[in-house]
Design a protein that fits this description.
Layout: H1 2-12, E1 13-17, E2 22-26, H2 38-51, H3 55-67, H4 74-83, H5 95-104
Antiparallel strand pairs: 1-2
Amino acid sequence: MRDAGIASQQRSCLWLRGATSVASIVFMPTLHVRDVPHDLYEALRARAAEAGTSISAETICLLRRAMRVDLPGLRALLDEIDSFPLATRARGKSAAALIREDRDAR
């Protein structure tokens, strides 16, 4: 059965031979997702824009992250991190100023 997988990989590569160069094109599977809620799509679009990537690239990044959570304890840790509120800059103060305030308050 392993040979069938290798043969499939070989068939998925298309070799183009030019006069002076050789190029390999690997065909990747395509995933289509239907009925994505508008708010989720907009959040994904905004996240991709912040990262300077495409929606497709950001989706792949998020899927890879989600698939990594199979390690013991990692899912719980990521869920705990995701439950924290997003940190925002308080009243426009720098991180150093916030740390100083916190230290002075002790």
